[in-house]
TrEMBL record:
Matches recorded under PANTHER family: 3-OXOACYL-[ACYL-CARRIER-PROTEIN] SYNTHASE 3, BETA-KETOACYL-[ACYL-CARRIER-PROTEIN] SYNTHASE III
Pathway: Lipid metabolism; fatty acid biosynthesis
Organism encoding this protein: Muricoccus vinaceus
Identification of the protein by name: Beta-ketoacyl-[acyl-carrier-protein] synthase III
Pfam (any one): ACP_syn_III
NCBIfam families, sorted: fabH, PRK09352.1
CDD domains per the UniProt record, alphabetical: KAS_III
Domains: entry comment: The last Arg residue of the ACP-binding site is essential for the weak association between ACP/AcpP and FabH.
Similarity comment: Belongs to the thiolase-like superfamily. FabH family.
Gene name as annotated: fabH
Assembly notes: Homodimer.
Main subcellular localisation: cytoplasm
C-alpha cells in the first residue's frame, strides 16, 4: 500500500526574541507578563528581522528536514506551503522556497487555511503522494505573523510570533506501519468574521474563537481516531496547534494524556499560526521525544473558521 512517510522534520526561528515585558515596552502596550502568561501560557516569541522573508524562514526549516532525512533537494518534486503571511500574492512563497533550495523541477504552491494550514497542507500532500502525482514533497508551515498585527490592539498583538517548520514526505510502497494514517479537514465560513485579516491586520473576537476551539478540536480528534479504529490510549504524542495553553491542556485532558506526552512550544514561540505544528514536531524529534514508530496526533483550528486533525505513525 502506497503511503506518505515522514522522512525528516525541520524548524527555524528568527534570532530576535521578545519577552512579554520587552514586547510591552517596545510597543508601548498597556499589558503585563502576568496577564499574558496566565491567560495564554505565552512568555516570549520570536520576531523576523526586517528583510527576513517568510520564504527565507521556510527554506531554513526545509534544509533541516532534508538533512535529517538524508535527502538531496533534487529528490523533491513538490513543495506545498501553508501561510497566512505570504511574501507576495504571486509568485507563491512555495515557489520562492523552490528557488532558494535550487530545485528546478516539479511543482510548488501555497495553501491558505490560517492556523489550520499545516494540517491542510499535509492532507493535500498525502493525497497527491498516494495518487502518484509526486513522490517526495516538502510540506511547510511558515509565517511572518508579526507583520500583520495591529500593535494598538493588546488583545491580539501579544498572542503571535514568527517562524517556520517543515516535514519531508516520501511515498513508500511498503511502509509497514509508518506514514500519514489519515487527515480530516473542515471549514465553516459562517464564522469567518471572528478571526480575520481586515485592512491588512488581524482582527479577533478572542472569546468567540475560544468557545469554538475545544468543541471543534475534540470532534476532529474523535473523527481521526474512529477512522483508524484507534483508541485515545493508543496516542503517544499530541502535537497540537499552539495558540493557547488552556486549549492545549483541555485537549490533553480529553485524550487522557499525561502532560509530558503533549508537545508544548506556545510558552516560547507564542502562536506561529501554520508554522506551530511543524515547529513543535521538529523540536520533539530533535530532542529525542518523538521516535520512529510513535503514533502522533496533530490538531488545529484557525481563521475561516478552519479546523482539522491528522494522525501519523513516525
Ligand atoms: N493585557 C491586559 N489586559 C488585556 C489584554 C492584554 N494583553 N488584552 C485584553 N485585555 C483586557 C480587555 O481589555 C478586557 O478588559 P475589560 O474587562 O476592562 O474590558 C479584559 O482583558 C478581558 O478581555 P477578554 O478579551 O474578554 O479576555 P479573555 O479572558 O477572553 O482572554 C484571550 C483573551 C485572547 C487570551 C482569550 O480570549 C483567548 O485565548 N482566545 C482564543 C484565542 C486564540 O486561540 N486565537 C487563535 C486561534 S488560532
Amino acid at each position: 500500500m502506497l503511503r506518505s512517510v515522514i522522512a525528516g522534520t525541520g524548524g527555524y526561528l528568527p534570532a530576535r526574541v521578545l519577552t512579554n515585558d520587552q514586547l510591552a515596552e517596545a510597543y508601548n502596550l498597556d499589558t503585563s507578563d502576568a496577564w499574558i502568561s496566565e491567560r495564554t501560557g505565552i512568555r516570549r516569541r520570536h520576531m523576523a528581522a526586517p528583510g527576513e522573508s517568510t520564504a527565507d524562514m521556510a527554506a531554513a526549516a526545509c534544509r533541516e528536514a532534508l538533512a535529517q532525512a538524508g535527502a538531496d533537494a533534487s529528490e523533491v518534486d513538490a513543495i506545498i506551503l501553508a501561510t497566512a503571511t505570504p511574501d507576495s500574492a504571486f509568485p507563491s512563497t512555495a515557489t520562492r522556497v523552490q528557488e532558494k533550495l535550487g530545485i528546478h523541477r516539479g511543482f510548488s504552491f501555497d495553501i491558505s487555511a490560517a492556523c489550520t494550514g499545516f494540517i491542510y497542507a499535509v492532507g493535500v500532500a498525502d493525497s497527491m503522494l498516494r495518487s502518484g502525482a509526486c513522490r517526495c514533497a516538502l510540506v511547510i508551515g511558515a509565517e511572518a505573523f508579526t507583520r500583520i498585527l495591529d500593535w494598538t490592539d493588546r488583545g491580539t498583538c501579544v498572542l503571535f510570533g514568527d517562524g517556520a517548520g517543515a516535514v519531508l514526505l516520501r511515498a513508500e510502497d511498503e511502509p509497514g506501519e509508518r506514514g500519514i494514517l489519515s487527515t480530516h479537514l473542515h471549514s465553516d465560513g459562517r464564522h469567518g468574521d471572528i478571526l480575520q485579516v481586515e485592512g491588512g491586520m488581524v482582527r479577533m473576537a478572542g472569546r468567540e474563537v475560544f468557545r469554538h476551539a475545544v468543541s471543534k478540536l475534540a470532534s476532529a480528534v474523535d473523527e481521526a481516531l474512529a477512522a483508524n479504529s484507534l483508541a485515545k490510549a493508543d496516542v503517544q504524542w499530541l502535537v497540537p496547534h499552539q495558540a493557547n495553553l488552556r486549549i492545549i491542556d483541555a485537549m490533553g485532558r480529553k485524550l487522557g494524556l499525561p502532560a509530558e506526552r503533549v508537545v508544548v512550544t506556545v510558552d516560547r514561540h507564542a502562536n506561529t499560526s501554520a508554522a506551530s505544528i511543524p515547529l513543535a514536531l521538529a523540536e520533539a524529534v530533535r530532542d529525542g521525544r518523538i521516535r520512529q514508530g510513535d503514533l502522533v496526533l496533530m490538531e488545529a483550528i484557525g481563521g475561516g473558521l478552519t479546523w482539522g486533525a491528522a494522525l501519523a505513525r513516525f
